[in-house]
Amino acid sequence: MTMGTKILSIETHFPEKTLTNEQLSLEFGRWDPDKIESKVGIRQRHIAAKEETAGDMAALVGEKILQSYDKDKIDFLFFCTQSPDYFLPTTACILQNKLQLRTNIGAFDFNLGCSGYIYGLALAKAFINAKLAKSILLLTSETYSKHIHARDLANRTIFGDAATATILEYSDQENIFEFVFGTDGSGMNNLIVPNGCFRNAFDFNPTEITSESGDIYTKNNLIMNGPEIFNFTIASVPILFEQCLIKNNLDVDDLDFVIFHQANKYIIEYLRKKINIPPSKFYSNIIETGNTVSSTIPIALLDSINTKKVKTGDRILLCGFGVGYSWGAVIIEI
Amino acid sequence: MTKIEFIKEVAIHCELASDNLTINTMLKSIKGFDSFAVLSLIAFIDEFFNVKLTAKQIQELRDFASLIELIGENRFES
């Protein structure tokens, strides 16, 4: 009998507070709301409250997905975040307790950004195929907003906070096919929070830096070199897409749908045209959420299922790329 | 593509105010040359000339002439 893995269900959670383009426009007086929406495809993004952590959001989305699943079946918990609640203990251990999962299960965090969901699927497939687990809860949750300087319009425009939960189960048919991965740490400085860990301590009196476009940040904040991230993306993603098709011995015509990490509308539309993916097979929608890092792909996948763009049996290519640099792609069947 | 046509194309792709643009117009002085315009410029140069503009090169750009120099004078019709 074939041993395989299937995605059983997906849930999402967004913080209550929202930040609209109108609010940004009023606060900064630089860009009009329509220009923001037409360029990056975002009208609003959700922002975690001051006391609301990625772990809190992961617990809420975990509770939501477990309302319709026997929690005692979960035998591994993976938590993807770059905003853990503590240096230690591992947030996944805290989540095991908050979700009242069994204690005889495995749980760990892994630190990845926009490629994180692809890695989560790979881990789930590997653990199930290695008989280390039969039922996995994969959580993604990010609060990049907490890293962004209040006067950094560019990054406040792009990023939103969110969490997702995915349950993956053993199946007698393989629904998660071959993966392709990539890593290039030479791009580490192009998307980074320099201070706050052990390389550079948090600076309690940081120097403010003003970018050419007028955005302000310190080394305690998230710093993104937009042009270099864009260059990395347009150089690596077309190759990643092609390699994933080759590894799966498939052609674009064999795919029913393609979901890229929803970085922003401009980037993913440029990639779609460059790779020549038909618009009818391509997902692009971050209008109400913004770039939610490791959560964009599961949010898009759930939305495309709910809106009937994707139906049972469809083959979907998923592709994540960003901070690290780190990238990955896989083809799945729903 | 001539250099004049190139300047017009850049203005269209980057949604810049296109009045009175010349080869000596300083890019950063053009109304609308913001971070959105920079991404559009990278995309346009990648798509039409297969040339990658780095963040450092963009930072050091002066006028359209310096942009043309980066792409290569020989890529333009006289």
Mean of all residue-level pLDDT scores of chain A: 96
N- and C-termini, Cα separation of chain A:
20 Å
What's the number of helices of chain A? 9
Share of residues in strands of chain A: 15-25%
Unreliable runs of chain A:
none
Radius of gyration of chain B: 11 Å
Instruction: Output the number of helix runs of chain B.
Output: 4
Q: What is the 3D form of chain B?
A: globular
Calculate Rg of chain A over CA atoms: 19 Å
In sequence order, what are the helices and strands of chain A, one letter per element? EEHHEHEHEHEHEEEEEEHEHHEE
Low-confidence stretches of chain B: none
Q: Remind me, CATH topology of the largest domain in chain A?
A: Peroxisomal Thiolase, Chain A, domain 1
Instruction: Classify the oligomer.
Output: heterodimer
Return the structural class of chain A: alpha+beta
CATH class value of the largest domain in chain A: Alpha Beta
Largest sheet descriptor of chain A: 5 strands, mixed
Structure report:
The complex is a heterodimer of chains A (334) and B (78). Chain A is an alpha+beta fold. Chain A is 30% helix and 24% strand. Chain A folds into two domains: 4-172, Peroxisomal Thiolase, Chain A, domain 1 (3-Layer(aba) Sandwich), CATH 3.40.47; 178-333, 3-Layer(aba) Sandwich (Peroxisomal Thiolase, Chain A, domain 1), CATH 3.40.47. Chain A contains nine helices and 15 strands. In chain A, helix 4 (91-98) links the parallel strand 4 and strand 5. The longest helix of chain A is centred in the C-terminal third of the chain and has 22 residues, at 226-247. The model of chain A has no long low-confidence stretch (mean pLDDT 96). Chain B is globular and about 30 Å long. The interface between A and B is medium-sized, with 21 and 17 residues.
